[in-house]
Amino acid sequence: MDLIIRSAAPKDLPSLLEIINHAILNTTAIYDYEARTLEQQKAWFEQMFYDGMPVIVAELEGEVIGYGSYNIFRPKIGYKFSVEHSIYLDEKSRGMGVGGKLLGSLIQRAKESGLHTMIGCIDASNRASIEFHKKYGFVEKGYLKEVAYKFDQWLDLVYMQLLLEED
pLDDT digit string (tens) for 67-77? Predict the structure, then answer.
């Protein structure tokens, strides 16, 4: 497997859109209800670039099969050293180690940027994601019951944290 992790480019937006829309419409990995448009995905990408936040892709044989990003955890200045990350994979690319490569790259970029902590907000029913994060040093720090509603059910949220300065 010749997997490349690189910064996303505007040419990747259709692939990112397809990946995120699959997650929106079929999973509780993201609590949006409606598929995004290419214009919305482009606006998000441009805002991330303007804010200096990374958007990275995993490319295999010329095809984008996953992506990751992080952004400031909350919009108050005091949170400027804390980021929340997201990783989304093409459905057929799960279980191949792609998520780990993306997460590892995001962690490295966060450390190099002088950030202090990385936070994952994970649907509590997604035990695979919770266990995945534990493998990379994330620790469960909070559990919020019934904070979201999707697919005709209440959803619980798990907060996981990685202190970037600890090694």
Answer: 999 999 999 99
